[in-house]
Amino acid sequence: MENLHEKTALVTGAAKRIGRTLALTLAEAGSDVAITYKGSKTEAVATVEALKKLNVRAMSVECDVRDLASVQAAVAAVAAQFGRLDILVNNAGTFETAVLESLTLPQWDKMFETNTRGPFLMAQAAYPHLHQAKGRIINIGSLGGMHPWPTHGHYCTSKAALHMLTQTMAKAWAPEISVNCVAPGMVVNGEVDPAYEHFANKTPMRRNGTPNDVAEAVLFFARGPHFITGQILGVDGGLGL
Questions:
Q1: Which of 101, 117, 148, 186 is most exposed, with minimal Cβ within 10 Å?
Q2: Series of mean pLDDT values for 10-residue runs along the chain (241 residues)
Q3: Which helix (H) or strand (E) holds 44?
Q4: Active site residue 155
Q5: 231 HSE (CA, 13 A, CB side)
Q6: Phi/psi at 70 (5° precision)
Q7: 234 DSSP β-pair partners
Q8: How deeply is 204 buried, as exposed, middle or buried, from its count of CB atoms within 10 A (0-12, 13-18, 19+)?
Q9: Given 37, 127, 155, 196, which residue is catalytic?
């Protein structure tokens, strides 16, 4: 396992929820961490404070991953602050339930702008730094990108596209950059909503996933063999089987 001390990671959409756990897990492993946020400034400040308590350097930067100028400015700010960029975790995403036959064009476009175009723009902006550092990109996909969910057509399709983008980047940017994807199934944070219990009952491991499950998979790709690239790792307790 590669030592993450003196490495810098950038985690998008990490002010709260799963992204926050990803950032904290990388910091616990020794990496300096930058996070992006869009509207959650208060939460971002709190997350940076928590990161600094782990004796690493940390910063937050406001960024709309759908906007090219915003993305380029965010990556430039991180590189200027830390002097390098070794790991990019494309976590920022959006999720919505919608009946396919009434799905609107704005709904479709918003989903792809965030879930697919966003990771592409971030990866492209980070490419020179990651190429120099022989770094890593870890995309956060979804079980929905591998299995069709009838009431999440735009979401599933955007994540399936992200999975293919992962593999395309892995081939295009090797051998300098490894690119992999973590695809969570049902993930719950804290107390389980009874509405989600049926997912746990259908899961071979008999529980829903947690942010820590996702974070451990991200950590593996962040410090495991650089030779591993182009992989889509399901973190679903067997739900997709």
A1: 101
A2: 92 96 98 96 97 98 98 98 98 94 96 98 98 98 94 96 98 98 90 75 93 98 98 96 93
A3: helix 41-52
A4: yes
A5: 17
A6: -65, -40
A7: 183
A8: exposed
A9: 155
Which residue is listed with tokens 């946020």? 37
Can you give the pLDDT at residue 212? 97
Spatial CB neighbours of 233, under 8 Å, sequence gap ≥ 6: 180, 181, 182, 183, 217, 220, 221
Kindly state the DSSP code that residue 162 receives in the 8-state scheme.
Answer: H
| CB-based contact 36:92 (threshold 8 Å) | yes
Q: What is the largest CA-CA distance in the chain?
A: 51
Task: Return all residues near 109 (Cβ < 8 A) that are at least 6 apart.
Answer: none
The model carries a pTM of 0.95
Identify the pLDDT of residue 197.
81
Token representation of residue 224 = 């495991």
